[in-house]
Amino acid sequence: KQQRLIYAIFIMYTSVYLAKLNYNALLVEILNDLGGSRRAAGMVGSFFFFSYCIGQVVNGFFAKYMNEKIVMTLSLFGSAVCNILMCLAPSISIMKYIWLLNGAVMSPLWCNVVKVQGKYIDQSNLPKALTISGLTTPLGTAINYGVCALIVRFSTWQVSFWLAGGLMLIMAVMWYAVISDIEQSKIFLPTENKTPANAPINK
Question: Cβ neighbours of residue 26 under 8 Å, at least 6 residues apart?
Fold first, then answer.
């Protein structure tokens, strides 16, 4: 079950990049379609960055009090809603508030990933878990830009947000199921409530 959790984290957090970097990859297409200034379009990403960074600091302090199964499931679900709303936004000025919310709801994810690793993965498997989770950033970023490029080549930018929204819903269900299975297991019980000392923090 530890191996299953390690790869569930990898799949989930790699997928997250398709729901938080897709606006950046589609900026030119969105600007051409909806109009507006480059400054206004750039503010959308700034709003996300602001709420995401502030949220990470706040959630980092309070992560130990959180139920990681519920918080992360709701976070993924909230991001799904935000991505779907981006498809329906009539203007870039509306998008910046949706993306501000997306940054906020995504901010609890990484600190809770680290918490889950320390809580459910023993010391012998931690190096593997940390190495694999460390691959999510470059891989997720590359997949995001590749997928977005293909989508705008053959369809419209809105499809990327619909795809990300659907993917986050799937990830929310998967995460809830995986953690529920671990919690119900009589064999696989957490032995330590420690955060991995060498866990990457810049996510």
Answer: 148, 152, 157, 160
* 72-130 per-position pLDDT tens digit: 999 999 999 999 999 999 999 999 999 999 999 999 999 999 999 888 888 888 889 99
Q: Are 160 and 26 in contact (CB under 8 A)?
A: yes
User: What is this structure's pTM?
Assistant: 0.87
pLDDT for 1-35, tens place per residue? 788 899 999 999 999 999 999 999 999 999 999 98
The pair of three-digit structure tokens given for residue 154, joined into one six-digit string: 């053959």
What burial letters (b/e) apply to 40-67, b meaning 16+ CB within 10 Å? Answer: bbebbbebbeebbeebbeebbeebeeee
What radius of gyration, in Å, describes the C-alpha atoms of the chain? Answer: 17
H/E element, 13: helix 2-20
Give one DSSP letter per residue of 18-61, joined into a string: HHHSHHHHTHHHHHHHH---HHHHHHHHHHHHHHHHHHHHHHHH
Tell me the C-alpha distance between 33 and 92, whole Å. 10
What backbone torsions phi and psi does residue 197 show, to the nearest 5 degrees? -65, -30
Two tokens at 5? 């959790």
Dist. CA 193–CA 119, nearest whole Å: 5
Nearest-angstrom CA–CA distance, 148 and 144:
6
For the record, the structure tokens of 181 come out as: 């299975």
Q: Are 50 and 131 in contact (CB under 8 A)?
A: no
